[in-house]
Amino acid sequence: MLYITQLLLFVFWIGLVQGQQHYISQTNVMDLLQNLPETKTLISLLNHDAQTYLTDQQNITFFAPNNNAFKENSVEFNSFYHTLPVYHLDWNMTLFESTSYNKSLLKLSFNNQQKTVESGMMLYANVLKTIPIGHQNSVVHIIDKILATPSDIITTLTGLGFTKAKDMLGSTSLPLNQQLTLFVPNNQAFGTVDPATLGDDLLSQAHVSDKLVTSNLWTNKMMLTSLNGFKMTLIEKSKNDWQGKP
């Protein structure tokens, strides 16, 4: 009985080592994806530019949706939105990283022993597996959903169900070619108030900061200035619970 147990453990150890060697032998992200059964659908959707980038580019992080992600999600897939132009393996804190697609943002979180990545429309994907690639100094995270590419503000608010804020912003124009931060009330925040009675510029001016300040940069009692000169102070009530005060 002891001999059989030892034999089974030896076979398991051999299989584990071979599996590790399989990952280690891959020289770049593209090579790895082509050899993973769970990324067959993804491989079929990568165009020539994406394949070249994932083959040649050093120091990148790629979020690879598995086969099931494409069956369960109708979101349009954009390979470059799934790519960080940095090697990112540490998940000890919540942060934003610029992607190589239109300088968009992804939010990386680690809660209850589960790594997640949040994209446009507040869609979350769970990280199922992480595979570093030493030759390329890169890493692949296998995820269970396609990351939604952020769209314009009105489309995003519609997707989030923030219909009252959408109606207010839809009748105004925000500055173009300028980085902004919007503090958007959800429908419950409006209560029974008709957005049309609040004036066209209330949301687009008083609720919009004149610079880009992502939440990982917030500090307690940080002061921001809105487009109409309104001063607002960010107060940290508790972890991940913030309040804006005039």
Automatic annotation (TrEMBL):
Task: List the Gene3D superfamilies.
Answer: FAS1 domain
Sorted keywords for this record are: Signal
A GO cellular-component term linked to this record: extracellular space
- Domain spans labelled FAS1: 26-147, 140-246
The record's InterPro entries line, in alphabetical order, gives: Adhesion/Biosynth-related (IPR050904), FAS1_dom_sf (IPR036378), FAS1_domain (IPR000782)
Any signal peptide, and if so, which residues?
Answer: 1-19
Keyword Protein transport attached: no
This protein is called FAS1 domain-containing protein
Its source organism is Mucor saturninus
